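Z., the sequence and structure:
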Amino acid sequence: MADYIYANVIVDISHEKVDRPFQYRIPDRLIGRVDVGSPVNIPFGRGNNVRKGYVIELTDEPQWEVDKIKEILDVAEDTVSAEDLSMKLAAWMKRHYGSTMNAALRTVIPSGRLRSGRTVAMNDASSIRSGIQCVNMVLSRIKGSVMLISDSFALAFARSARC
């Protein structure tokens, strides 16, 4: 397996202007620890504010001038690492439902807390599959509601237009 030296990272900020990957260099001390789905701490913006981000791709090809690419600070150990399947699901949700990548990631990556304040663990494949099934069920209900509204609007329009 090749050691990749760059990571494309989506920054944990829900804003359309930063809903794209930013490239960071993986320092030697983190090579082998950073993988797709890894939560990482990165310097972001002109002030180099420390932000959390998620690695969505590893590469050995720089997209910018090498001296302008910032370095990943460390792997965020206090969070759950997203699996490749979760990243793909988030990308699919972004494309098909018009979501931002951040909002989609927040949906598929377990936060560890429910609204009631109880801690939950989604460490095994079965729990993750159940979570994905739940998301798919909710999304299909939303899609059904949108179709029902669309059909009702079309019927009302046809009646008013006397088609």
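The mean pLDDT is 74. Residues 6-77 form a domain with the GIY-YIG endonuclease fold (CATH 3.40.1440.60).

Let me know what you think.
H.
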